[in-house]
């Protein structure tokens, strides 16, 4: 059941299921909390209370925002966390929300016991000439740029096809229809474009301030980076020594939690158990 939380500037939609230590799930741009359906079901079955959030402008959250930065999204996640009892909780963030989870953990260490970053944009990005020789990266980047510059639903769908390499999940057609339906709603493409035009420098500036354990999960075929392993390693290296750990999922693209939920959850559960005990 959808619940709503009023915060400065709008309303954040979310749903809660299960009982136990709290885990808050935050999706990437142009998406909704439905991206975590398979993960959420598995976490609830494993004994967690799971809150899946629609980011500002996405899903069932309101659209009239002016700030699409990771810092702003972090504020929304912390507001949800306080509303649900104040934690400490584990924050799980995908893509842009990975950077937001980093900021939230740095800002409110008493509320965040650990962070899971899935294919996160958490550092300043740069493109090297050699990167463009990697076909999947070149294809993904051109489609992302087109979707952001033109507000094209067709190009966003085309990007998603690249971002899910190999065999598609069984629910692929339904997933695409839901995403397309949402981004065609008034204000939703504006949110996608707004998030796509933000830089992750605000998150990168806070990596050194994080005080809790961080699990970074990357797909080996993620088209958002020419070398996903190098990006994940750089995030871990920017954290205080000993806090970060990188795990790679073979064959996964930019949505490992939706493509390979069993593998992602198998990595998350030991991490969650350890840090629920820590909290």
Description:
The protein is of the alpha/beta class and 279 residues long. The protein has one domain (3-278): 3-Layer(aba) Sandwich (Rossmann fold), CATH 3.40.50.1820. The chain is 43% helix and 17% strand. It contains 11 helices and 8 strands. The protein has helices at 37-45, 70-83, 96-107, 135-150, 153-163, 172-183, 188-196, 201-204, 228-238, 256-259, 261-278; strands at residues 3-7, 10-17, 22-26, 49-53, 89-94, 112-118, 214-219, 244-249. An 8-stranded mixed beta sheet has the order 1-2-4-3-5-6-7-8, with helices on both faces. Strand 5, helix 3 (96-107) and strand 6 form a beta-alpha-beta unit. The radius of gyration is 17 Å and the shape is globular. The mean pLDDT is 95.
Describe the structure in brief.
This protein is α/β, with parallel strands linked by helices and 279 residues long. The chain has helices at residues 37-45, 70-83, 96-107, 135-150, 153-163, 172-183, 188-196, 201-204, 228-238, 256-259, 261-278; strands at 3-7, 10-17, 22-26, 49-53, 89-94, 112-118, 214-219, 244-249. The chain is 43% helix and 17% strand.
Throw out a few tags for this protein.
single chain; 279 residues; alpha/beta; Rossmann fold; eight-stranded mixed sheet
Describe the secondary structure blueprint for this structure.
Blueprint: E1 3-7, E2 10-17, E3 22-26, H1 37-45, E4 49-53, H2 70-83, E5 89-94, H3 96-107, E6 112-118, H4 135-150, H5 153-163, H6 172-183, H7 188-196, H8 201-204, E7 214-219, H9 228-238, E8 244-249, H10 256-259, H11 261-278
Parallel strand pairs: 3-4, 3-5, 5-6, 6-7, 7-8
Antiparallel strand pairs: 1-2, 2-4
């Amino acid at each position: 059941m959808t619940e709503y939380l009023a915060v400065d500037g709008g309303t954040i939609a979310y749903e809660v299921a299960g009982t136990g230590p709290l885990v808050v799930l935050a999706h990437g741009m142009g998406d909704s909390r439905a991206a975590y359906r398979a993960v959420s079901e598995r976490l609830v079955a494993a004994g967690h209370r799971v809150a899946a959030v629609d980011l500002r402008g996405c899903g069932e959250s309101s659209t009239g925002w002016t700030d699409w930065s990771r810092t702003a999204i972090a504020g929304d996640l912390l507001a949800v966390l306080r509303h649900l009892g104040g934690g400490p909780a584990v924050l799980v963030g995908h893509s842009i929300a990975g950077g937001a989870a980093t900021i939230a953990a740095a800002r409110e260490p008493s509320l965040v016991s650990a962070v899971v970053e899935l294919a996160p944009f958490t550092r300043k990005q740069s493109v090297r000439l050699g990167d463009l020789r990697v076909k999947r990266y070149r294809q993904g980047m051109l489609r992302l740029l087109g979707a952001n510059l033109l507000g094209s639903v067709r190009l966003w769908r085309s990007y998603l096809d690249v971002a899910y390499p190999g065999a598609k999940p069984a629910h692929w057609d339904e997933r695409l229809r839901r995403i397309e339906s949402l981004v065609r709603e008034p204000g939703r493409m504006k949110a996608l474009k707004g998030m796509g035009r933000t830089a992750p420098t605000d998150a990168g500036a806070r990596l050194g301030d994080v005080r809790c354990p961080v699990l970074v999960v990357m797909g080996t075929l993620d088209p958002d980076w020419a070398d996903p392993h190098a990006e994940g390693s750089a995030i871990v290296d920017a954290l205080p020594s000993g806090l970060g750990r990188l795990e790679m999922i073979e064959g996964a693209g930019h949505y490992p939690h939706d493509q390979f939920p069993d593998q992602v959850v198998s990595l998350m559960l030991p991490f969650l158990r350890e840090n629920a005990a820590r909290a």
